[in-house]
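Worked example 3. Consider a protein that binds 4-fluoro-L-phenylalanine.
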Amino acid sequence: MSRPTDSIHGQWSSRWTFILAATGSAVGLGNIWKFPYIAGENGGGAFVLVYLLCIVAIGLPLMMAEVMIGRRGRQNPVNTLRSLAKEENKSASWGLVGWIGIVAGFIILSYYSVIAGQAIAYVFRSFAGVFEGVTADGAHQIYLSLTHDPERLLAWHTVFMVLTMVVVARGVKSGIERFVKYIMPALFAILLMLVGYAANTGDYFNQGLHFLFTPNFSKLTANGVLTAMGHAFFTLSLGMGAIMVYGSYLSKTTSIVKVSIWIAITDTVVALLAGMAIFPLAFANELTAGVGPGLIFETLPIAFGHMAGGALFGGLFFLLLVFAAWSSAISIVEPVIAWLVENKNISRRRASVTAGFGIWLLGLLTVFSFNIGENWILFGKTMFELLDYITANILLPLGGLLTAIFAGWVISKNNAKDEFAMKTPFFYPIWRVLIRFITPLAVIIVFLNVIGLLG
Ligand code: PFF
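Given these inputs, the predicted complex is written out as structure tokens:
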């Protein structure tokens, strides 16, 4: 059976542009907004340690698996998994795993866009000097005045969705490639500056480091472990076909191992730096680490409000946060778009409008969960929390587990090796043990633990 040697959607210009695009996908709200607040909610150090273990034992092998599968299949994740399964004489229903990803992407982008919208709102507030001299209470009120107003949230959510779909409609290559080349280094630079500022808070910086890096296992619950694992998937964009679809645009000659390690390291460093920038500022301003999703929107403005040039600097920071979210959002929706273009035979533009509208509509649930729908509680969670939980803690680990099984057990040893190991024959056996045994077992153990079967 013949496999396509190119994707109909094009190919990255070089290995570096793939690394940048995949890093653009990985580095996003997950690193700068979500990681600090979930680390805060789950007690810090021990959570961070479990998260790092998950990146190494689960995330990294899975990232390599997704790139490998994507590049071998050269189609959207549903078609890729189906055709590679058929090639190995296995059931075509493996395509269903691709569907888990498409559903997860739909839901993730629906709330991701609302949070990214909040970041856009903060760009304007910051540049306008709204945070100058602000107190902790004042920052809290500014945050509430945005989130408690459904019209404003909806407007910013709409703006972000339009921005995302405009780039997606123009094609991944001319959109993202151009974008990430400038944006990622700038984001990194600003983050370092913020860490530098936090380092000047003296004792508070040490307190922040202590919080992040000293494990206190008594604070870690089974659910905290699941959240750490789910976040490893979320932050590396794994378990839903985003990296797989990006892999399908990758040249045959690129070493999968090297690029994956680069992406995972950069992503992890950005998350840790974000934590190191934010916790000292939170502690210095007598905020608790566990305030939840508002953490970044309530602590950073206080710091910006008290530093020289804070309005400019703060505006720039939120702008870069928006760009980071933007380059991630594009990758979240790319599997859906590739599927629509390949299977429904419609143009990218039409696919973008259709998918974008559906996701925008679903986003209303998150918009309302901050205000008029605050009390719509299901399983003890608001709509936003529920969508986040279902995707990050269930769908992504499930999609990832099945993808690992697919890469380790369905694709034959020789085919995987052929795709994978060109420049790194030495690493291949290690990867194979990880993806066949360690990655799936780790995911299953964490799941069983949460259900309570392991006590
Ligand atoms: N990795 C992104 C972040 O950390 O913000 C979020 C994300 C992107 C999740 C792409 C899933 C995905 F497929």
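Take a moment to read the result before moving on. Residues 25-26, 28-31, 105, 108, 234-235, 237, 240, 242, 328, 331-332 surround 4-fluoro-L-phenylalanine (CB under 6 Å). The domain at 15-450 is CATH 1.10.4160 (Hydantoin permease).
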